[in-house]
Amino acid sequence: MIAYGIFNFLHILVFAVIIGIELPALHALRMAGGPSGNQATRSLAVRVKRYADAVSAIMLVPLLPLGVQIASQLGVWTLSSSTWLYATWAVGLAWLAIAVIAETGGASIWARRIYKTECVLRIVIGLGNVYDALSTFIGGGMIQTNWLAAKVLLFGLVLVVSGWIRWQTRAVRFASVDAGAESGPDPQQLIATIRRAQWGSHSILAMVLIAAYLGTAKPW
User: Fold this and answer.
1) What is residue 77's three-state secondary structure?
2) 39-60 vs 82-104: helix crossing angle, rounded to 10
3) CB under 8 Å to 117, separation ≥6 — which residues?
4) β-bridge mates for residue 77, sequence order
5) Tell me: the pLDDT tens digits for 135-160?
6) How many CA atoms are closer than 13 Å to the CA of 176, on its beta-carbon side?
7) I need a labelling partner for 152 at 20 to 30 A (CA). Which of 31, 34, 103, 125 fits?
């Protein structure tokens, strides 16, 4: 039970970090895009949003192994053997390493390739979660309860939308490196890029909140 408590605490902590870091970033972006926003404010807003997105994207990754670990201990996610659990942790940790490298690897050609690879990987894993959830709703799969299937469905959709956003706003990721060299796109252009994908950020925040509620209330 001690191990379960630790995993559950980490699971809740990840949700809290994602929600807590996204709201200030959205507020900073809104202020910078207003009529009173100047060049310095826009540059700061882009940096805040860029690093908030990086933290949020990285923190989404451990939700996969943590969720499977907790669900298997509760008996609501049936695994054929412990090997599947170990494999989930191995995939999760490898994916976490790739996500960290994608965010901290500079602006080289390899860094850009790793970033794009992580975007695709995120979408593929997300679609896998969507498939698992839908399989449960039609009477199959390894998930034993509808509330968990709904949560897994939301998590899969979050990953798919997150991967799409990261792909569409990759210029912002690498502009932060260029900004250190006093070059790169104008902050206003970067803000416009972010705003085109803003619906995705809002939908992710909403789905994370709903998933957090399902995890605590377990209504059905």
Assistant:
1) strand
2) 160
3) 98, 102
4) 143
5) 999 887 788 888 899 999 999 999 99
6) 20
7) 103
Q: Quote the CA–CA distance of 20 and 56 in Å, as a whole number.
A: 10
3-state SS assignment for residue 143: strand
Number of domains making up the chain: 1
Residue 185 exposed, middle or buried by CB count within 10 Å (0-12, 13-18, 19+) = middle
Collect all residues with Cβ–Cβ distance below 8 Å to 134 and sequence separation of at least 6: 153
Domain carrying residue 46: 2-217
Burial of 120 (0-12, 13-18, 19+ CB in 10 A): exposed
pLDDT tens, residue by residue, 33-48: 655 556 777 777 778 8
CA nearest neighbour of 15 among 217, 207, 218: 207
Contact predicate 209/19, CB 8 Å? yes
Count how many Cα atoms sit within 13 Å of the Cα of residue 143 in the half-sphere of its side chain: 23
Q: Which amino acid is at 70?
A: I
Contact at 8 Å (CB) between 24 and 52? yes
Angle at Cα 105 formed by Cα 112 and Cα 39, nearest 5°? 80
Beta carbons of 21 and 56 less than 8 angstroms apart: yes
Q: Tokens 């809740």 label which residue?
A: 12
Question: Against a cut of 0.85, is the pTM above it?
Answer: yes
Q: What is each CA distance from 144 to 11, 115, 120, 169, in whole angstroms?
A: 20, 35, 29, 37
Q: Which helix (H) or strand (E) holds 46?
A: helix 39-60
* Residue whose structure tokens are 């956003």: 165
